[in-house]
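Mods, move this if it's the wrong board.
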Amino acid sequence: MRRPERLAEALKEEIAEIVGFELEDPRLLGATVTDVILSENGRDAKVFVLIDGNDEAAIKETMKGLHRAATFVRQQVTMSLSLRHAPHLHFVRDTAEENAARVGAILEDLSVKGEFQEKDEG
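Not the wrong board. Structure tokens:
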């Protein structure tokens, strides 16, 4: 594994720890860090976050809380990982799980209506 990939993995673990246990903002209780992608130059990191709940207002509040905490999280990551220059953190909502659930519901609905049938292999 190359250094940027190792650093991204270490960032993911450390940010998940900070968001999950060190931040006391109640808006962040349903936030789970799923992935971190580091830019080519290492100055920016996209932090993908899965947010529990279907209420769009609550999701927006959670994202606001994450954006407010970004500087603190960056400082903690810098100290914990002994980095000379920590990347700027950009929190992004991870919608992959929601999209997968939506596609599954559509396929289920189509199969109930008889419009979709899986092909037998063999």
